[in-house]
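Two quick folds needed for the group meeting slides. Do the first one here.
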Amino acid sequence: MGPGVEFERWRLKTSDGPLQVSIAHIDLRNPNVGLGVGTRYDRIVGPGEPLSTMADRRSAEIGINADYFDISGNGEPTNLVIAHGVIQHAPNGRAVLMVGAGNHVVMGPASLKLQLIAPSGDALDIDSVNDWSHGAQLMLFTQAFGMPSEADASAEIALTPADNGAYRVVRAVADDLTFLPLAPDDLGIAARGNAAVNLLHAFKEGDSATLSQALTPQVDGLREAVGGGPILLRDGAPYEDPDAPSPEERDVRYPLTGAGTSADGATLWLVTVDGRAPARSIGVTRPMFGALLAALGASDAMAFDSGGSTEMVVRRLGEDHVSIANVPSDGRERSIADGLFVINTATPGPPARLVMRSEAASVLAGSHLSVTASSVDVNDQPVAPGGPVTFAVAPPSLATVDARGRVHALASGHVTISARSGPTSGELPLDVVSRVGELRIQPVYRVYAPSSEYALTAVATREDGTAIAVDSDAVRWSARGDGGALDAAGTVRTATRPSRLEVTARAGGSQADATLLVGAHEVRLASTLLPGESAGHWHLIKAPADINAELDQSNAPDGVSALHLSYDFVSSRSTRAAFIENEIALAGEPLLFSVQVFGDGSGAWLRAGYRNADGIADSITLARRISWKGWQTVRAEVPPQARWPITFTRLYVVAPPNTQAAGDIWLRNLGVWYAGPVRNAQ
């Protein structure tokens, strides 16, 4: 990927199932290797940002997701953030990764003591940095705060740098409705309660002030830091972190992100393991992840945020932007709070060589593939080419190449594609093959919509899993079943009703088969939901236990008898929920949950819950707000990363913090939906 930076993608077969692992190997002693921390849109509070755009803004070669964050609130990270030597968020006592002078990496818990000292010598303890939640009384904020629209502060001062590391108060206000605007190097202090009285008593405009900052542990030349956890290894041995985030995840197979360093501090490994995909990668437990990092050579190691946040991006040689290296378990990039990045710090120079790349290392005889040539300098920085690029192939009896780098394979054998641009050149070896090792049909969806059109493709690989380029017109398609019509180009037009279509693709002596399930049908779990404590009945759980909620069987306002939930969440301001629980084991892989609900327009959330095969409970949202009155059928997708078989466990009404909700709802006709026709189910 650049000086001192290498990337590998592993596909492993284990006794429990497959694993896919992305590994970046970084030489910390290489003078052109830099480590940096980035936050979403360079802010602490605000909308999340995908890791890829965060990495491109830093011109990173490698990036991984880092800290846990307030996913249901303002999105701020939970732990320490230091970027460019400036503390942007205070630590929470859990594990952090800190980068000091000479790329010295330290992993472990951190603590911060921060004080604002008045001209009188009086010191005020600052209890948060860019974090105005969780009861903070005195907060230091920077331009990276994100500036929420409402300050809710009784007092504020703005500080600008003065001589000898001191600051000067340039503004002091009381009861301001918004946070004070700051110049890039300025600092703000916001206070409420008694801290506000003390702040305004101690400072007025024109006063000098100093900041006392003590971060433990002390790291020489500390310039970057980011939170995470738990610690997995210490001095080469497994470590049980007493302050592990989400300790219930310790022995559950998850997608995981982590980092490890060698005993001599010369090497850093950044690693992601994909998960929640039984056919592709089953994930690992935290102890397994620690063992993997130890096997790579790490002496100290820690994890970062996991699950759908797990991601690695890489910038391949000669490219201007990163690409996603792993497969996020959400099926797409999740917007996150911060990331850890590897940066090529060398100054770009003139072109030194051409880096050549193709979409596959092999091509089927008679087919085509495209070759690209990008320029890099002596330190592997992407630069503009020194002139037009020309291509050639040897031996010409096996393939031809045109001026755009389009290769036409003629006969099996080994060929070399060469490129030249001014004084720079490059070569790319390719194999022309006469047969395909394995063929797969894509895209593969859980369900295909009726009366829709899909363009199918056949993906070819060798026995070792490497890609083979195959022209679309070299693939022969056929189909059987009532699920639709398939043309010679692999385009299918699905039927108008739930059905199935068996599709076959043939190329290079190999065959691939796929079943397309069109539409969906409902399987009714229960028309009538009966309250009670016995098996098969629904019972009420309240959280907290003292909220007002009752469960019975009664008539809805229209006279229809159904399961009735009465709830009153007005008396409390915390998160409140009334859970209607049962245990219903589900066959197969259902697409949706559905239930008929007589709504009350209260605005409360309606959710459903299920338990995965690995014992982990998950929830899905049926309605963000119960905004309707009368009967309405609500549905929610069962996530494709569910670990089958699953068990339906609950329906529940929930009121988030600082919202009021009270009312009555009735429920009936609980069902699940399966792909395809009825005869295909379960």
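Then this one, please, same format:
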Amino acid sequence: MTKQITLTIDGQKVTAPLGTTIMQAADSIGLHIPRLCFHKKLSSIGACRICVVEVAGMKNFAPSCCTAATEGMVVKTNSQAVRKARRDLVELILDNHPRDCQICERNNNCDLQEMANTLGIREFTYEGERKRYAVDASAGVTRDPEKCITCGKCVRVCSELQGVNALSYAYRGFRTTVLPAFNMPIKDSVCINCGQCTLFCPTAAITETDATAEVWRNLNDPAKTVIVQIAPAVRVAVGEGFGYAPGEDKTYESVAALRLMGFKVVFDTQFSADLTIMEEGHELIRRLKNNGKLPMITSCSPGWIKFCEHFHPEFLDNLSTCKSPQQMMGALIKTYYAQKMKIDPASIYSVSIMPCTAKKYEASRPEMKSSGYQDVDAVLTTREFIKMIKQAGIKFNELKGSEFDNPMGESTGAATIFGVSGGVMEAALRTAYEVITGQALPAIDFQAVRGFDGIKEAEVDIAGTKVKVAVIYGMANVHKVFTEMEQGQRTYHFIEVMTCPGGCMGGGGQPYLPSQAEALDKSWYEKRAQGLYKIDELKKIRKSHENPQIKQIYQEFLKQPLGELSHHLLHTKYQRRLPQGIPSKVKETVSI
């Protein structure tokens, strides 16, 4: 049994387990101590000092986020001296911060802005020199170091949850900021563009690279046929931008909004998710039957792919050669659909709406031009989609639903669950089982691969073959599993990897949560996941190989899974990747 201690906080007796911090003890009685650098999913470093409290017997104020509560401790969280210290600290931060709140990406959803308002700061007290740094918009995420308050959340999420370490503190004192190694552009660094830093950043120091202006220009160009696709995870999160609860299905309202915005054709990325399962499922079957490279590892998550290229190139041959659903759809829009509708593919402007900032990077990869053009011209995050709906003056809450266009607008429940960790695995198993055995699945839901554990394992009996599978999210978890695989401690046939917490529905391009302290709150993400599982359950068809439009595209165009045309349009390969722009003398010593 854990030893209990008793302390006094603002006159109240509080009992808590030994090792509890002052902040945790205060939280346990419903007392919120202001904070900026703290996040319950990250290590506590006491960087901002906004959470300072008075502790009887201590000479200096104590940072409550990383000061352990002790037996008999007496704490004051709201004394006049503490309030003044917090105000002084926030005023000093504001003095060194851009004064552009009204035009800032995070206006009305900024922890610093909220803190200043809570503390009643109504003027700039300290006038002085401000640090100046250039904006880096070279990748799917944009850094604005002038808005950085050096809280270190981005550094810690990149290191502790993703295991990438793309960011670190640089310089000292007044000039301290956060940068990639050698201050190189973020596109040349080991950054995997996952965008989790954008969810954790309390200001707008890191955001997605905005594509809305470019998309509006093309929507207003009469020479362009602007076609859009929308991913599974977007539909259970977009409503959050208009007051709906997370997980509410807003599929058809989203389609209606896209038509009002001016998109000529609206396709469903879930169609190409079904197509991905057809190709990936047959690829798995081929590897199992022909002693191919195992384990086969899914390749739908572009952040994971870049991570593998940088940090685990020894597993590149294990990756499925399938492109992601976004890229499959992009290639088919400018080939199959263009031919079918007699449209010049050069006039097509292809847009995708994704929960993911790494999709922006993926669309720009040089190998993603199998249609003869850039397969996907622009990627919008869910946040950008919400912004454009509001810019268009659309009353989202009053919209009547609209259906997707054909022939790439029909999907199955298997495609819907692509948006949640374990969904790609489950969808693939539904199809692989029935293709191999020729028999209907006894139970369509694979509960063993569901849930919010970062590492899940299961064993599936397919016609007498015990197929060992794993589902992983978060790159730190990937590194752990892959290291143990290399040491012979784990063996699998098939592995699903997703970059972000809980899968795509926790992607870096999803709506900011109401409180940054809850940016990885399971209950919030579970609601989005439940929304996707509900859509799956309500679908008339829940297996990818039974989608009639999938059957149609093979009959009319692709001919067969893993066929010559499928291989050209829907598959790709990846390569070992080193950071670019490292000074040559240093690069000689770099080994990844």
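Slide caption for protein two: The chain has 19 helices and 17 strands.
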